[in-house]
């Protein structure tokens, strides 16, 4: 006898229920033996069980996505923290390397000017991307302000 593997993601059929033509009994000319009220009650009960299972499934999916999002945000935060440390070390190293050639004030000025130029270039690229995204989102075709 094969044993089915149950996933837990959907309501499982009752173990002993076998729906075949032989299991449906028909009486004379008044239809099925089971009254319509009983059939409706059974459908409502099974529908409620299915809805509860589906709700639990969706709640589990939301929990998994939420946990993954939180973990990803923490990892990104740690990466940003380390990036700021590395950038600080780079700026200090630039001042330290340039100080013998330009003096401390000159090395500091060159390093700050270089950092500001990088910041301006990054902000200009971000502004261009945002403008392009807004033009696409708002339906403006290729027009410039």
UniProtKB/TrEMBL annotation:
Keywords: Membrane, Transmembrane, Transmembrane helix. It comes from Sphingobium fluviale. This is Phage holin family protein. The chain crosses the membrane at residues 72-98, 104-126. It comes from the Bacteria.
